[in-house]
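Readers of this paper often ask what the protein records in our data store actually look like. This encoding replaces a full spatial description with a residue-level series of whole-number codes. For reference, a complete record is included directly beneath this paragraph.
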Amino acid sequence: MRKSRLFFLGTFAAAVGCAAATTNFRPPLEAKLGAGAKTGTPVALRFDPNAKVVITRYTNLPAAPYTAAQAQRGEQVYNSTCASCHQNEKFIGKEFVDNWGDRRVGDFYQLVRQTMPVDNPGSLKDQQYLDVTAYILKANHAPATTDSLSADTTIMRGRKIGVHP
């Protein structure tokens, strides 16, 4: 009985703490399948207008590194694998910057790695996911560096998506 009370109190305290957090809430990203999507004809994804996603900004982190060669490889992967389903306006330009700017690069990388391609999530090589992430950075005007983007957790958690429209 005592353990269940402690569990209840701990859960309640965590819920109150989360509700009191002063974070920025935004609606989740949406996407529509393009005509060339591997899953068939274009279908609008279901959208819940009441759903909220917590977006934490990390303005104090340095921008994620990537090389020009890495972004070039990523563009090839994006064009052959991603572009058939995703329209560029979701990933290149103001909408992407508004949704992902100053967020940790690791959050974006993990989302893409775990959910894409939609017909076979996780099927690309780790380097291909990194390269696509580098391409998205380049396409949104993040400057290239001499260091490659890597799956190193220190880089993924300690660097932000430093992009602008």
